Amino acid sequence: MPIYPRRDYFESIFDHYKDLSGYFTLPFTIPNNAFKTDEAISLISGKNFELTKKEITQKFGVPRAKFRIRKDNLAINIYIFNLTLGEYPVRLEVHMNRNVLFYFKYSFSATINITKEDRLFILQIIKEKYLHKGALIKMPQTIFDKNQTLLQIVDDVNFEISYINLRSAALQELSNHRITHERNNIYQTERRQQELIESL
User: Fold this and answer.
1) pLDDT in tens, 59-77
2) Pairwise CA distance, residues 146 & 109, whole Å
3) Within 10 A of 42 (CB to CB), how many other CB atoms are there?
4) What is the DSSP letter of 84?
5) Which of 106, 108, 166, 189 could be disulfide-bonded to 159 (CB atoms 3.0-4.6 Å)?
6) What DSSP designation does 44 have?
7) pLDDT category of residue 192 using cuts at 50, 70 and 90
């Protein structure tokens, strides 16, 4: 069994999201370089974002940590699970707004060395599941289906596989918050610039 981190570790995950900025890097629309699959992208046993909290806990057990975010029209609950998936230690983040699932992310453990071969093996499984079998194309970073479900792969220092519901009300609300955040940043930058121009 893998050794799981302390509560402080889970708090650091929550810190990433509590001011909503952790969501601002999500794609809110389909990226231009995304690949459209004819297959329906599923999360658990053929099910998509209609999954309930009860179904998720029946599958994965009790969450190791849970957090709440309440801001304007958002009522987000984040549930963190530590799992072993195909013998790989994995952290699962489940994000629900008003009990509706909108974001689901597997992060493969950075403390257990996941080799390049392991990553290629996992990517090949995804490729065979959602791309045409035998397709001679490079594995895309983003795949989407007719239901506007986005599967996004980060294969960098971290190895992550995320599922995002582009039709969710939560994503639209988060998009609005990101726009406001960007405008505020521009305003603050211009204000600092003006102060320096007047003072130096």
Assistant:
1) 999 999 999 999 999 999 9
2) 31
3) 18
4) E
5) 108
6) B
7) confident
